């Protein structure tokens, strides 16, 4: 049985990142469970209220920048919070994420990272997260309705965690190697970055039309600063 997003859900997607919109509007066609969008963009005041109520853990929510959505499961006309329904919705979102090559994290499986790269069911992903938290003596935080975009720096962190005084340098591509940089050179690189450039965009992977041009002063400064490790 196929489902369709209501106009109310489509309105909730206003201001949400186009990649997330693509995934949500595709997932409704794959889902075994009907769902609607209950939250897309969120104001700072709304986020603060949720944190005060304990319904959210952070004031740095990706809802504030349109990089997250909350989806509500429906059984007939009845909204439901039954967690097993959100496994099925997450399966549909994972399928859509793979189709559109969009990295997405699910709020009931925080530890696995990009659900598009998980090779089993989302129920298995959630179980993996719960087992990990319990092994650490920590309580799992399950937010089944929540899905968010993953930035490049988060993906890199899942591949490799730098040691002290090490950084990853891969401006427009997957990591192909690592170098140790001095703290002063890292500071110079950070100063040269465009603060308005998004951390993640489909245009930055495999579709670059311009070379990365670093200032000559930065190139001169960096010479001799790189060493293999």
> So, CATH architecture of the largest domain?
2-Layer Sandwich
Principal-axis shape equals globular
Strand proportion: 5-15%
For the biggest sheet, the summary is: 5 strands, antiparallel
State the distance separating the first and last CA atoms.
55 Å
Counting DSSP E segments of at least 2 residues, the number of strands comes to 5
- Please indicate the count of domains: 2
pLDDT average, as an integer?
A: 79
Task: Write up what this structure looks like.
The chain folds into two domains: 7-150, 2-Layer Sandwich (Muramoyl-pentapeptide Carboxypeptidase, domain 2), CATH 3.30.1380; 154-222, no CATH class. 38% of the residues lie in helices and 10% in strands. The chain contains eight helices and five strands, in the order ααβαββαβαβααα. It has helices at 7-12, 18-30, 44-53, 83-100, 122-135, 152-159, 183-192, 216-222; strands spanning 34-39, 68-75, 78-80, 104-106, 146-149. Strands 1, 2, 3, 4 and 5 form a five-stranded antiparallel beta sheet that branches. The longest helix is centred in the middle third of the chain and has 18 residues, at 83-100. The protein is globular, with a radius of gyration of 20 Å. Residues 165-178, 200-212 and 225-229 have low confidence and may be disordered.
Concise account of the structure shown:
It is built from 8 helices and 5 strands; from the N terminus they run ααβαββαβαβααα. It has 229 residues and is of the alpha+beta class. It folds into 2 domains: 7-150, Muramoyl-pentapeptide Carboxypeptidase, domain 2 (2-Layer Sandwich), CATH 3.30.1380.10; 154-222, no CATH class.
């Amino acid at each position: 049985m196929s489902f369709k997003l209501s106009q109310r859900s489509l309105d909730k997607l206003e201001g949400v990142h186009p990649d997330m919109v693509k995934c949500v509007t595709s997932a409704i066609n794959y889902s075994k469970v009907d769902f609607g969008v209950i939250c897309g963009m969120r104001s700072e005041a709304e986020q603060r209220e949720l944190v005060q109520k304990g319904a959210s853990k952070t004031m740095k929510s990706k809802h504030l920048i349109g990089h997250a959505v909350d989806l509500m499961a429906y059984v007939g006309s009845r909204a439901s919070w039954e967690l097993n329904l959100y496994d099925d919705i997450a399966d549909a979102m994972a399928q859509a994420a793979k189709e559109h090559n969009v990295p997405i994290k699910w709020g009931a499986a925080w530890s696995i990272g990009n659900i598009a790269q998980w090779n089993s069911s989302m129920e298995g992903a959630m179980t993996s997260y719960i087992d990990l938290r319990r092994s650490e003596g920590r309580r799992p935080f399950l937010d089944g309705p929540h899905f968010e975009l993953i930035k490049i720096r988060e993906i890199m962190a899942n591949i490799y965690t730098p040691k002290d005084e090490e950084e990853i340098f891969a401006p427009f591509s997957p990591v192909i190697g690592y170098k140790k940089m001095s703290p002063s050179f890292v500071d110079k690189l950070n100063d040269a970055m465009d603060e308005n450039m998004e951390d993640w965009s489909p245009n930055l992977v495999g579709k670059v039309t311009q070379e990365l041009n670093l200032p000559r002063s930065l190139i001169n400064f960096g010479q001799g600063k790189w060493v293999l490790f």
